[in-house]
Each structure stands twice: as structure tokens, then as C-alpha cells.
Amino acid sequence: MISYLKGIVAGVQSSGNRHILTLEVNGMGYDLLIPGRLAKQLPSMGDTVQIFTHYQIREEIPLLYGFGSPSERDLFKHLLSVSGIGAALAIALLDTLEVPELVQAIVTTNVQLIIQAPGVGKKTAERICLELKSKLIEWRKTAGFFVATQGPAPSILEEVQSTLLALGYTASEVSHALHYVSEDIGLPKDAFVEDWIRQSIAHLSSTGV
What we know:
Belongs to the RuvA family. This protein is of the alpha+beta class. The protein has helices at 36-41, 70-80, 87-96, 99-107, 111-114, 122-142, 154-166, 171-185, 193-206, and strands at residues 4-15, 18-25, 28-34, 48-58, 61-67. The chain has a five-stranded antiparallel β-sheet with strand order 3-2-1-4-5. Strand 2 and strand 3 (28-34) form a beta hairpin.
């Protein structure tokens, strides 16, 4: 089993949502299917990078998937364990939300955020939460991070998120904004919906989003 590869970036091919990294390791070229987020974060051609891998055989065809961290790779494997979730949907989820945000959405059954991933409907999102919630509550501890509990109270969370998403912000941008408003501004969890929305928009605007 290949846990990771460390080599030189020899090329990246992108076609739609499919991204292939060619990594040269000791004179051999490996093609790895990677998330779009990682494709944007790769160093320049000729530079060295370490990629954490998952090997899979699908319809007798060997495939090698690459990720930027062990936690991202392991969450990908957890997602594949959900009935009806294939590699394409798992990567779409990882491209929509960063690892801590996606884990938080799953363990808190935040369907509204999860369905922002292309191809993921409400029933699929609910199934992901049902099958992975208890597993991820334990896994996140060994993965080296803890899910943040800050943000609006559960009773208003969905309304705040829905409003911001309707304004055109991405799920990741919304998650970052709510965390900032809670941690850096210190807005109370039970503040008015309008306050959460106004402060979030102000933060997103200040960052050039």
C-alpha cells in the first residue's frame, strides 16, 4: 500500500472537475487524481511536493488519488464508506468545504451546507450524516483537530447560512465568516439573525470576496 509520494511536480491536467497531477518520483511518473482545491495549491512545475495517497481499483482499473494532508485523505476514505458515495462525489465535497468545516457540517447534521457540493442532494447529505456522524466524532480527535462549536445558535443557523448562500457566497466563505464573527468579533450565539448576517457580509466585503 502506498501511503504517500514525495516527488517533483511534472504536470497538472484539468478537464472540468477532473484534475490529474503527474508526480515524478525517482525517475518514474505517477498520475494521481486530486481535488481541485489541491490543484490550485500545488507548487510550481519542477518543485517538490508530498502527496498523501489512496489506491483504489474500479472496474479492474487501478486508480491513485492524491491529497494534501493525511486528514483529507482519511476523510475521503470515510466518505467512500457511505452507501451511494463514489470518488467523484467525495472529491466534490472536499472541494466545497475544507476538512474541519465538512466534518463540522456532518457531525452537526448541517444539511444546508453539505448540499452546496455539486451532485449532493438533501437525501444524500442526510445519509452521509447518518452513517458518518458517530464515526467522525471519534475520528476528529485522532486526526489532530477539533470541530469548532462557535457560530449562531442552532435555532437561527440555517436561516443565516441560507441567506448568505442566496447572496452568492460559497459554503466555505460562509463558514469562515461565521467563525470570524464569533471568534474575532465576539457576537453572542443568540444575537439576532440580522446581526449575524450584517457582520458576516461586512467581514466578507473587507476581505475582497
